[in-house]
Write a structure and sequence with these properties.
Layout: E1 4-7, E2 11-17, E3 33-39, H1 41-52, E4 56-63, H2 66-77, E5 80-81, E6 85-88, E7 94-100, E8 106-111, H3 125-128, E9 133-139, H4 147-159, E10 163-168, H5 176-184, E11 189-193, H6 194-201, H7 206-214, E12 220-224, E13 230-234, E14 237-241, H8 254-268, H9 272-286, H10 299-302
Parallel strand pairs: 1-4, 1-9, 2-7, 4-5, 4-6, 9-10, 10-11, 11-12
Antiparallel strand pairs: 2-3, 7-8, 12-13, 13-14
Helix pairs in contact: 1-8, 4-5, 6-7, 8-9
């Protein structure tokens, strides 16, 4: 069985660069490049973990189409297990079309495709046995991933001895904390960005965001702060961890890379502080170019950056 089992969306990204305006209906316009990439919250996290050398599997749906088959080949080449990435017979793989302006700003249109149909309540208990970390992303994006459904999955995962990690997306419909409460009650590590935390709580100070979320969360809250690193609620109180100084060129997927590094730290038995520090290190590689995972090196190389990582036992 895998050390980390990832649930969430897997997307085929069509990246169009550079786009300032769309051509009028019926007309053509040449752009600099069109590239293709594996993406999605769970896809990015699993790929990053595979590149780190962590034993990881991706669970969910792709379409029974050429894109889904190519993704299996790509994931397998990165060391990601795909036996639990099921083929949906009638719905295509999730796809996004992304236009990038000359300054790097992104506009995205997408379809969830087969991702929408994956039901967490149908996950067999056998998938959760001997799994050390169960990661769930794509909350607020996939309709089947409700707070109740994630909470039930986490309850089963914890009964099998797994640690649980939750990473959310932007709450476009304003469903808020009430929607998340059942999942938060069963999660060991809740990771979210500053903007997501500000939206959920209405607070602007990181410490106020974390304090507001702690009362609903079973375990630790980890708030990512972009170029300022992250802050972690642990036994020593709220601690800020600085980001590494790098020249960031594309921050898309940085949160997924952070979640991968954090989850890798759990597998390694690190403290929550060192898990978050490892997450910052992994994210620093991700932001130096397009896509979240291609520049991420093996874990041994990441851990050589800065002061040594401790060997405290992770919270169970």
């Amino acid at each position: 069985m895998a050390d980390v089992l990832c649930f969430g969306n897997l997307q085929f990204d069509v990246l169009c660069r550079s786009v300032t305006t769309l051509p009028p209906p019926g007309e053509l316009r040449m752009i600099d490049s069109i590239d293709f990439a594996l993406s999605g919250n769970a896809g990015n996290v699993a790929a990053a973990l595979g590149r780190l050398g962590i034993n990881v599997e991706l669970a969910g749906y792709s379409g029974a189409d050429v894109v889904g088959e190519q993704f299996r080949t790509m994931l397998s080449a990165m060391g990601v297990g795909t036996a639990k990435l099921l083929r949906h017979p009638t719905v295509s793989t999730g796809t996004s079309v992304i236009t990038l302006s000359p300054g790097g700003e992104r506009s995205i249109i997408f379809v969830n495709g087969a991702n929408e149909l994956f039901d967490l309540d149908t996950v067999p208990d056998a998938w959760l046995e001997q799994t050390r970390v169960v990661y769930v992303g794509s909350i607020f994006v996939l309709p089947q991933f409700t707070g109740e459904a994630v909470g039930r999955l986490f309850t089963r995962a914890r009964a099998h001895g797994a640690m649980t990690v939750l990473n959310i997306c932007w709450d476009a419909r304003g469903q808020g904390i009430p929607f998340l409460k059942p999942a938060l009650a069963e999660v060991d590590y809740f990771i979210l960005s500053y903007d997501e935390g500000r939206q959920l709580t209405g607070h602007t100070l990181p410490e106020s965001i974390v304090d507001s979320l702690k009362v609903h969360t079973r375990g630790n809250v980890i708030l990512t702060l972009g170029a300022d690193g992250c802050c972690v609620d642990d036994k020593a109180g709220l601690q800020q961890i600085p980001a590494l100084s790098v020249e960031a060129t594309d921050c898309t997927g940085a949160g997924d890379a952070f979640a991968a590094g954090f989850s890798a730290g759990l597998v390694e038995g690190l403290s929550v502080y060192d898990c978050a520090r490892l997450g910052c290190h992994v994210a620093s590689f991700a932001v130096t170019g397009p896509s979240a995972y291609p520049r991420i090196p093996p874990l041994t190389e990441v851990k050589q950056i800065g002061k040594p990582f401790g060997q405290m036992s992770a919270k169970r």
